[in-house]
Each structure stands twice: as C-alpha cells, then as structure tokens.
Specification:
By secondary structure, the chain is mainly alpha-helical. It has ten helices and no strands. Helix 2 runs antiparallel to helix 3. About 7% of the residues have low confidence.
C-alpha cells in the first residue's frame, strides 16, 4: 500500500525559492553594471570592459559544469552512508550524484563574491571627454525610496513605462533584442540537451558529459566575447560598423554550427529492432 502513493516531499519548494532569490540577486549586475561602465568609463574603453563582464559571466557556467562533473562522481548520500557498501558505479543508470553539493558550494561562492560590491562608490567622477548627454545616475536614490516609501512607487513606474516605450520604439535596438533572444534560446537549448545527447549517443557518463561540455563549449564563447571587445576598441567601430561585424561573425558561427548535424554514431544493435533475431 505504501508504494501506491507518490512521495509527498516539499523539497522542491526550497529549490524554487532558492532559485528565485538567486535570480533577484543576479539581475542588477548586467543592466546596472553596463550602465555604470557606460557612465564612468572612457567611450573607447567601454567595449573592452563590457566584454570582460560578459567573459566572466561565461566562466561561471564553465566552472559550474566542471563542479557538476565532480559532484556527479560522488554518491548522493555522501557523508551519511558508508561508501564502501555502495555496489554501483557512476556508469550505472541507478547512480544518483551529489547534486545538492553544488548548490552549497555555489551559494557560498556567490555570497563571498557579492561582498566587494558593497564597497563600490555611489558615484564617480566622469572622464572629461565624456559626452554631454551622458549623466551619471544614482540608482540607490530611486530604488531605496521606492521600497520604503509607497507614495514614490507610482511616479517611478510611470517614468519606467515612458522609458520602456521609448527604448522599444527604437527599431535598431528592438531588432538587436529579438536577435539576442534567438541566440540565447538556441544556446541554452544547446547546453541543456547536449550532455544528455552525449550520454545516449556516445555512452558517456553524466560526469564526463558535463566535464566535456564545460571545457569545450563555454571557454571559446568567453574568449570570443573578449576578442570582440578588443577588435571594437582597436578599430573604433561605429554603430553601423559594429552591426556589420556582429552579423558577419554570427553568420559564420551558425554556418559552422550546422556541422553538428553530421556528427553521430550508428544505432545500437538491438535484436528484433535494428537487426533480425537470427
């Protein structure tokens, strides 16, 4: 009778809330960080700084895959059971790795990495050659009152709606936004399903699949972003030049990626399905 009911564990709620808080904490880094750099850095140096920001953002998933590879080699109940009594190996389909260990290590690392942000000044002196239309903006002066004083929320939302409408009415930016969504959608699907594809097609373990993905897929992306920033700085590309450069590189990348369709293994030999019983 006990096997008829599904397990009623509520642990998924903690995972959901943890990822929700993690997303809230990660959100300000990219939009506010790029605005911070754009306001206070020299105009010709901004592409390099932004490239460094995105390159570091690529290193995170890379180390995450490597950490996942290490944790997948460890049994899920490590520290609670005698590992000598475990008779299965990571190549066994019944093996469950220590998936929870990555959350603890990642959480502590994120907390330590957030400490230096507390020492950033609210404003910096702008470079002399900065454009006159660029004005520094103290985000804390807007965000904090909106949290603690409800009467300021409505004007803030009104300004936000006006700014959002103005940004989305920019055809070039809207086109770039749509292209970015398509790129990230394909890239996320690539990273999500390729490890499982390698397990099924090439007979690799979960640990080795994650290790190979983290080592071969993400570092080239990070290096490419950094080199792109250096090239833009060296040739001082305009908006049109940067658009042509991005289109050319993306087109070449998609062309090369099509070669994945020609990579694979023959079907497994299964009696009665791929070969006859004889």
């Amino acid at each position: 009778a006990g096997c008829e009911k599904e397990p009623s564990s509520h642990m998924w709620i903690y995972i959901l809330l943890g990822n929700l808080l993690r997303g809230i904490g990660e959100t300000p880094i990219t939009p506010l960080g790029i605005s911070y750099l754009d306001d206070f850095a020299k105009e010709e140096d901004v592409p390099v700084y932004v490239a460094c920001l995105h390159t570091i953002a690529m290193l995170g998933p890379m180390f995450g895959f490597l950490l996942g590879s290490l944790c997948a080699k460890l049994y899920v109940d490590i520290g609670f059971v005698d590992l000598g009594s475990i008779t299965i190996t990571p190549r066994d389909s019944r093996w469950v790795g220590a998936w929870w260990l990555g959350f603890l290590i990642g959480g502590v690392t994120s907390f330590l990495a957030a400490i230096p942000f507390c020492f950033l000044p609210k404003s910096l002196k702008k470079p002399e050659e900065a454009n006159n239309d660029k004005t520094s903006y103290d985000y804390s002066a807007v965000i904090m009152p909106c949290i603690f004083q409800s009467q300021l929320i409505y004007p803030f939302l009104s300004d936000f709606y006006t700014s959002l409408k103005k940004v989305l009415s920019n055809r070039m930016y809207f086109t770039f936004l749509c292209c970015s969504l398509l790129q990230f959608s394909s890239f996320i699907g690539f990273l999500t399903y390729k490890p499982k594809y390698m397990e099924q097609q090439y007979g690799q373990s979960t640990s080795k699949s994650n290790f190979l993905i983290g080592l071969t897929s993400l570092p080239p992306v990070g290096i490419g972003i950094f080199l792109g920033g250096l090239i833009m700085k060296k040739y001082k590309m305009s908006i049109i030049g940067a658009t042509k450069f991005a289109f050319t590189m993306s087109f070449l990348a998609y062309t090369i990626t099509l070669l994945h369709f020609f990579v694979g293994c023959e079907n497994h030999v299964v009696a009665g399905m791929t070969v006859s019983y004889e």
